[in-house]
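Q:
My hope is that you can spare some time for a protein that puzzles me. I hope you can help me see how the letters and the tokens relate. Thank you; the sequence and its tokens follow:
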Amino acid sequence: RVDLETALHQGARVAGLLTTLPLIASVIIVTAHRAGGPAEAIVAVRGHLLGTLSLGAFFAVLAVLIEPAGMLIAYATAIVTAIAVNRVLMWLEAPPADAINAPAKGR
């Protein structure tokens, strides 16, 4: 059985954590759109999503390791994991080299 007070407290904590991501994203995306148009907004959305996945990996590793491994090892591992996830996602997102060097069609 879930205590109502516990549910309200946890719900507020989770809502507080999740609210910041869309709020930050909306400000960044609107700014990018106004500065560079729809193409820049799409780049901003993509970048934000990739960053969010890295952030999720950071907190997942931190949650698992903080108690058994201690703060130093947990934070160091979480940082390395976030950077690795970010690098892998950027590598997966990068266009193939021949697409970059190929001449544009119709020119």
Remarks:
- The first helix runs from residue 4 to 36.
